[in-house]
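Morning - zinc ion inputs below, output right after.
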Amino acid sequence: MKIPSLSSVVIVLLLGAAVACGGGKKRQDPPAAPAAPAPITEESLMAHVRFLVSPGLAGRQIGTPGEEQAAAYVEKHLRAAGFEPVGPAMTLPVTRPGRPATRNVVARVPGTGDRVVLLGAHLDHLGVRDGQLHPGADDNASGVAVLLEVCRTISGGARARPLAKTLVCVAFGGEEAGLVGSRAFVASGVVDLARVDRMINLDMLGRPLFESLFAQTKPDGLGLVVNRVPEAELDAIFALAKTEGVELMSLPESWIQKVQAGYAYDSIPFNERGVTTLFFSSSLHADYHRPTDTADRLAPRQLRNRAAAIARIVEHLAR
Ligand SMILES: [Zn+2]
């Protein structure tokens, strides 16, 4: 059940008062504009994180009921936000002979033109290992929370003013098992990659940048790894992030590989197909892939600022 937020209750009360004050004068009102979406808050993000890390989902490992429940949760929220399926269903199965199956949730808000901006985040994690739950709060409940909140607010805005480009949101399964969902997605043709202007990947957004890796962490920093993005576009993106208190830092792909050899992420299959990609991440930390990647170690204020910044950037790219 969804409990109305305090702000929506206040808006309803104010509207009621405005109607009550209207008196008996009869006039022709213009058609009501669609209500603006409720803003992204620390609480709206952390509510998604808390569901995804809950013990019932058992760490969302590929091929488990917990991963399936995470996908169902994403589909429910994207439908509530007004998204529609792209393929025959919103949740598309990914099967592999003799290996655990997974699924991608793929949904869109149609634009007025035929170009596409694609926003993705992986919803799976490592499950239970050696009897210990790996909740994956940062990796990647944080990215899924941002994906859902960015989708909700942009879709709400698009009802009043349609986007020029179709916004496609994808929650990938099986990333931790070797980019299974994203590789299946690019191979499936469910979205014609020639129409994709930008693919934006969200993976680990809830911790201070460079935490545990350097003496000096950057709480308000956020890492960005780009592939084929023009310099002028980056300037605009950095400026948009700054308006939400986020200091973007360009990280070369080689930097990530140096920190964690063999580290892979879902924008790689898109890079291989020639798609322009932006990968946002607050990067690796001491709790990475450990049972201690818990919700209480996330930084809610930074998570909110990053979500608001990414919403501005996605909207900029889609308009
Ligand atoms: Zn991840």
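Note: Confidence is low (pLDDT under 50) at residues 1-25.

O.
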